[in-house]
Amino acid sequence: MNILFYLSVILLAGMLLGKLVGYIKLPEVTGYLIAGVLIGPSVLGIIPADAAANLDVVSEVALGFIAYTIGSQFDLNHIKKVGKGVLLITILEACCATLSVTLVMLFLFKQTLPFSLVLGAIAAATAPAATLMVVRQYKAKGPVVDTLLPVVAMDDAACIMIFGIATTIATTLLSESQTSLVWSLLKPILEIFGAMLLGFILGVVVCFIMKKMSSQEKQLGLSCGFILLAIGLCDKFGLSSLLCCMCIGASIVNVLPNSNRVFTTVDNFTPPIFVVFFTLAGVELNLSILTKVGFIGIGYVVFRVVGKFFGASLGAKLSHAPKTVQQYLGFTLIPQAGVAIGLALIGESILPSPLGTEIRTIVLAATVIYELIGPVATKLALIKAKEI
User: Where in the cell is it found (predicted)?
Assistant: First the structure.
């Protein structure tokens, strides 16, 4: 059948299930994933595997927009306002989740180093939407909420940087070419800085042009054009498009006056792209692999939470945060969704089969679990902290 037909089915099914799960108080992204599983090869087979493969470009574009938006969290003025304590908590909770999962995969489940590094890096991601929904629904207020909001805002940016480092190391380890030890160590560093440098250069160019534009439509067109350009250039030169697009967003938020208007315009444009992206991720979920990765998946679900809790608690103690923040902040960082799914798809393309497919399956299954238990854990933590 026509690829446009499949695209329309994916979009409409995702929107329908996203709406339906809202009635039982679940995040829309859970509905998108369920819709994808239902219409995909594993259940109804409406969307065949080869059609899903032909839509990979949608995933690349969606990830570019996600990274671009995350870059807006690198507002230096905002980072100065929230203080060093929040920055320390963010770094430690992300790094401890990564370290916890990586070590468990290596030594408990005897997985390879590239597999462990990539899955560990994905563990750093936290989805803010489900947590913020609970905060707004119950009008929660207090030290935990005041710390939580900036932490989840900056968490995905920290995750993308960790993932960029992990994937470049994993790619180097998997390379079959005979290279010197010095080049093996330098290559990941050069790729990371190359992606960031390209992003900052493109970002400065965007800002220069946008200063001469007043039309939001033209600013949207320019943003889309440069995001696509960044993705294309990174693909050509073997750089991380996530880091590059994130740096474009970071450049705009720090250089361009009234940058909020630019990001708002882009945010209003991207929802259909994200619906297709997440539903497509569900389409590509191979349910038959779940039994093979069962114990590894359970290990990921459990030890990611352990790492998040320990890192958040340690960061809060070192920054002399209130006792309630030290005790309960970690429980509010459980949800995982958009960025983690996107990184899992990138991880699948980096690692050889079946390791890449296993990572995607683990993360997609874990996402559904986290999105179910995350809001409940957040609510209970805020009740214990007496902020609800």
Answer: Membrane
> Residue length, the chain?
388
Q: Which two tokens stand for residue 372?
A: 């179910």
Parts of the chain with a pLDDT under 50: none
Q: What is the 8-class DSSP label of residue 47?
A: S
The pTM for the full model equals 0.75
Alpha helices in the chain (DSSP H): 3-22, 28-39, 49-53, 56-71, 76-103, 113-122, 128-137, 143-174, 181-210, 216-237, 241-255, 259-269, 271-283, 294-318, 323-328, 338-350, 355-384
Using one digit for the tens of pLDDT, what is the confidence trace for 308-317? Answer: 999 999 999 9
Q: Give the Cβ contact number of residue 383 at 10 Å.
A: 13
Give tens-digit pLDDT for 5-55: 888 999 999 999 988 988 887 767 778 888 988 988 888 888 887 787 778
Q: What CATH number belongs to 3-384? A: 1.20.1530.20
- Tell me the angle at which helices 56-71 and 241-255 cross, rounded to the nearest 10 degrees: 40
DSSP conformation letters of 234-279: HHHHT--HHHHHHHHHHHHHHHSTTHHHHHHHHHHHSHHHHHHHHH
Please tell me the predicted confidence (pLDDT) of residue 41: 85
* CB contact at 8 A, 101 and 359: no
Residue 198 burial (10 A CB sphere; 0-12, 13-18, 19+): buried
Q: CB within 8 A of 323, min separation 6: which ones?
A: none
- Domain positions in the chain: 3-384
